[in-house]
Amino acid sequence: MLSFLPPTPSDMMEALKTKFRQRRKTLGYTQPQLATRSGVSLGSLKRFERFGQISLESLLKLALVLECLGDFGGVCEDKGEVPRSIGEIL
């Protein structure tokens, strides 16, 4: 991916699955332990860590247990005026 291009949904899925797996390991949870604590099925957790596929509700449940739910609070916040063309930037 070129650094000046925004990330694609696939890029974001890849980054999230990696960050969540690392956070799980940092906190010392096995996959079965995290599944039990979060109420997310073990199969869903494994699919997420392998392919990045998960429902929003399950993702938020995992984030709660992994102590990063607050990170989702900034999603879709108004960041002010966004340039609509390269001409506006120049």
Fold blueprint:
Layout: H1 9-26, H2 31-38, H3 42-51, H4 56-65, H5 86-89
Helix pairs in contact: 1-3, 2-4
- Helicity, in percent? 55-70%
Order of helices and strands: HHHHH
Oligomer: single chain
Q: Count the E strands.
A: 0
The CATH topology annotation of the domain at 8-65 reads as 434 Repressor (Amino-terminal Domain)
Q: How many strands, which pairing sense, and closed or not: the largest β-sheet?
A: none
- Based on the structure given, which CATH architecture of the domain at 8-65 is correct? Orthogonal Bundle
Beta percentage is under 5%
Shape: elongated
End-to-end CA span: 23 Å
Mean pLDDT: 91
Secondary structure tally, helices:
5
Radius of gyration: 16 Å
- SS-derived structural category: mainly alpha
Unreliable spans are none
Please report the first level of CATH classification, the CATH class of the domain at 8-65: Mainly Alpha
Description:
The protein has 90 residues and is an all-alpha fold. The chain has a domain at 8-65: 434 Repressor (Amino-terminal Domain) (Orthogonal Bundle). It contains five helices and no strands. It has helices at 9-26, 31-38, 42-51, 56-65, 86-89. α1 (9-26) packs across α3. It starts with 8 loop residues before the first helix and ends with a helix. The model has no long low-confidence stretch (mean pLDDT 91).
